[in-house]
Amino acid sequence: MDKPTSAQDFFATRRYNDNSPEQRTKVEGIAQWIGRTGLPARIVEDEEFIAMMAKMDKKFKVPKRHKILNLIDKMYKEEKEKIKQKLATARRITTGLDIWTKNGLTASFLGVSACYFNPEDNKAEHKLLNLKEMVHPHTAESISTLVEESMEEWGIPREKVLTTITDNGSNMVASFHTHAEVATTSEEDSEAEHDDANDDDEHQEGEDDRYDYGAIERTPCVVHTVQLVVNMVQKEPPIRRLLEKVRYLVNKFRKSSVATERLLQKCALVLVKDCPTRWSSCFAMILRCLEVKEHLTAVAESMGWDSLQPSEWQKIGMLRDLLLPFAEHTKSLESDTQSLSLVVPALLDLKNHLSEFSLAHGRIYKDAATLAQKMLSSMDRRFSVFLDITADNFSPLPAAACFVDPCVAETLLENDDNEVQNLVRKAEDYIAHLVPQRVQVREEQLTDDEQVANEGTEALESIPAKRRRFKFFSANRPSKPKTAKTTNIRQEILKYKEGLSESHQTAATSAEVEESGIDYWLTQCCSIAFPTLKPLALDLLAMPASQAFTERVFSVTGYLSCGRARTILERSAFLKVNKPK
């Protein structure tokens, strides 16, 4: 080996000191890379890896795997502590649950996540807390036990959890029955439990949910429930046969490299196959077929295959129109944060769409019109938990989130339908119910002079005009009801409604502003004017409408679990999903 010929050459090849900033930075970077990808730490001892690092920086000393493992473990503990501190400062938390099973059914895991408004950074955050390994069978008791372990590990008191979002599986629903039984035995005013959950998902959605002092036991995942309505297209015999014909044609293309290549040459697109477990996949399949209709037909003819008849293409177009609003709302409702406020307007929008569709296509495509009517009936039944205040399991949470979101509050406030106005009243009651009792007592003890002084310092805020995003939902502005003088939180609610009313009157001359509800409360509503309502609004607006976050976690863990030890799966998923953005 050639020896250095000068001092410059000597220092150019001299290795970094172990404690030098350059060495530490690179070692920590490798640890982050391995920790968040789930790669084995022994990769740092691979000859090719060492050679690659030598070409990048000759001074760098590649660490041994034990050092990398220690750094990953340290990083994991530090990240957990940071999130634990954020959870401690969060006022209210929404948790999400989902179960995932590895390929080959070799192991199952319960994913637990937490969504909250971070008052220090002024933003909504959603974090993965745990991937708890489960043993078969996945009973309600085992789910409840693992959730309790997770809450204890992260120091989350039960009264801090606004609600838990789950799918409609019988074990998930029953786990909250079990939890409720344990909780009510320690209460003086315990109530008898409802009937046991049965295994029919359609019957038990949202069953036995209840709220006490602002805490709602369980909220069904809105997107999962919407997809149950969408999947009714597979149950209507004439439409099912049409979709089977489309699916058969798509499969023929996807299995033929010749047909696929010809289609690519014509339009640079391929056909999309639907998947029963993938949201809006049926819509995606027919949408792509319609996009490449002419090219698809031409290629099918060149291959000697039967294609769809003109009348069938027309029906496929109507099905696209039927499912389009569902796909659009699914996309917005599956957001990790800030989507619960969209639930009520989205549901009302979809119901009006189905009603209009059945009327418009009753003569042209009777099967689709009949399907729309059945889907509407299904929505009435499935979403009574959010829209029907007389339902035993009614939850005011989505209506309350909608109420404090100025971007969509008009859906409730500018409609004089009795059912919608009942939702408004329930939303206001629930928001007032969220105020801690000690705060309510203090507010009630204010003198008249103090209340007048408060009212004088709390100037009304006007809201920029918002673009109507729910095109199927028409609303008539109701007359403003007279409101009696009540506690301070009620006065803040009234003041907020009056501000919305004023902004509506000036909407014609105001410029459209795309702004989230959280942005509005942070930038335009001062804490002096809304000392109680503002933090409540921020907490409600941070909430998600689905447990899609946990679903996406499992798409990550599916890769991480390939050939990896189960012990590092939770750590790798935690570091990857929760990495700073």
How is this structure best described in words?
This protein has 581 residues and is α/β, with parallel strands linked by helices. Among the domains are: 7-74, no CATH class; 92-221; 403-415 and 432-541, no CATH class. The protein is built from 26 helices and seven strands. It has helices at residues 7-13, 21-37, 47-56, 65-89, 140-153, 170-184, 201-204, 222-230, 237-255, 257-267, 281-291, 293-302, 310-333, 343-360, 366-382, 384-387, 397-403, 410-413, 418-434, 437-444, 448-457, 488-505, 517-523, 533-541, 548-560, 566-577; strands spanning 93-101, 108-118, 123-134, 161-166, 211-212, 215-216, 219-220. The strands form two sheets. It has a five-stranded mixed β-sheet with strand order 3-2-1-4-7, with helices on both faces. α10 (257-267) packs antiparallel against α12 and α17 (397-403) packs across α19. The longest helix has 25 residues, at 65-89. The chain is globular. The protein starts with 6 loop residues before the first helix and ends with a helix. InterPro entries: RNaseH-like_sf, ZnF_BED_domain_contain. Residues 186-207 have a biased composition (Acidic residues). Residues 181-207 are annotated as: Disordered.
Provide a brief overview of the structure.
This protein is 55% helix and 8% strand. It has helices at residues 7-13, 21-37, 47-56, 65-89, 140-153, 170-184, 201-204, 222-230, 237-255, 257-267, 281-291, 293-302, 310-333, 343-360, 366-382, 384-387, 397-403, 410-413, 418-434, 437-444, 448-457, 488-505, 517-523, 533-541, 548-560, 566-577, and strands at residues 93-101, 108-118, 123-134, 161-166, 211-212, 215-216, 219-220.
